[in-house]
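User: Teach me something about this protein's shape.
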Amino acid sequence: MYYGEIKKYDIANGEGVRVSLFVSGCTHHCPGCFNQDTWDFRYGQEYTEKTQQEILDALAPGYINGLSLLGGEPFEPANQKALAGLLREVKEKYPEKNVWCYSGYLFDKELQAESRARCEYTDEMLSMIDVLVDGRFVEALKDIRLAFRGSSNQRIIDVKKSLKNGKIILWEPKVKRGLI
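Assistant: First, the predicted structure itself:
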């Protein structure tokens, strides 16, 4: 697996201050994508044990809420083995931290059902993700007022509650945002 960037103090891609990993490789090719460079599976740097340790170390401070996985596409089958390994270590070392993931694949129709995204690591990854922002970016539905997503078709899913209840449960922010 390759990755384009690691942001160690990200406040845009999930609730709170986060460490964000932008993986390489995406077959969706959404028009208007903000990160087209990462469509290439060999973009950036090779993901190694050193990279994984860098991410784990960056998660250590108490003010870091958790890890966000973006891309590219984290649920491309070529990326899932490495990410499942990372998530195992994150959950073992930092059980109090949450994991957000951004995917163009739909939770119920592509990640939980037979699709090109599913492989031997998909269910394990889903079991370790707390919040999933799903759905392809649709430029015609772009709205910069939306929190944590780029277009209004994308859903912010509470994965734990959804798996437990067998239906999609949308994520509710811990802090309600209002106009000042």
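Now, about its shape. Residues 138 and 165 are 28 Å apart (CA to CA). The first helix runs from residue 49 to 58. If you'd like, I can walk through any region in more detail.
User: That's plenty for now, thanks!
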